[in-house]
Amino acid sequence: MEKVENILFIGFMGCGKSTLARAFARESGRVFMDSDALIEMQFHLSVSEIFAKFGEEFFRKEEQKMADFLTHTKGISLATGGGFVNVKNLDKIGFCVYLRAGFDFLKERLSEKEKAKRPLFLDEEKARRLYHARLALYEEKADLILETENQNLESLIKELKKRIK
Ligand code: S3P
Questions:
Q1: 3-state DSSP call for residue 91?
Q2: In whole angstroms, how large is the CA radius of gyration of the chain?
Q3: Could you give all domains of the chain from N- to C-terminal order, each with its CATH number?
Q4: 13 lines ligand 1 (CB under 6 A)
Q5: What is the pLDDT of residues 26-83, one digit of tens each?
Q6: Is residue 36 within 6 Å of ligand 1 at its C-beta?
Q7: How many CA atoms lie within 13 A of 164 on its CB side?
Q8: CA–CA gap between residue 70 and residue 86 (Å, rounded)
Q9: Binding-site residues for ATP, please?
């Protein structure tokens, strides 16, 4: 078992990063943070509104700023946005857990309402291409991969606790 300070969850939209990060924070005594929520709070706008008003490029720069800040933190359980994997210092933040699931599973898992909150999920075929384009990157950045299809929260937490403290 490895002792780590920060743990962060990466993976495609809908894989359950926020749910697991929040639950694991409570379970392990860490502080829960969510990169999307931090950016939304700062601008007092939703991710969709930020994309519409300022564009994706702007959002990505804010993600990088958030990453730079997060490298100075200790004891957090961090949910990231699906594209946060592209920040340049991901490995400096902490132990990276990739929540893996197939595209069709994720697509079914997200309700229409949840999809509508995600500008990059509005066009399903584009989202599918993005999924395939990112797969290798998620795997490369992961310190641990958890298969999440049809796994409940409890079993994922149990799996995590076997690996990290
Ligand atoms: C994005 C994923 C979203 C959010 C934004 C962009 C992406 O987060 O950061 O809409 O590029 O995959 P979730 O993965 O939490 O949906």
A1: helix
A2: 15
A3: 7-154 (3.40.50.300)
A4: yes
A5: 999 999 999 999 999 999 999 999 999 999 999 999 999 999 999 999 999 999 999 9
A6: yes
A7: 24
A8: 15
A9: 14-19, 118, 151
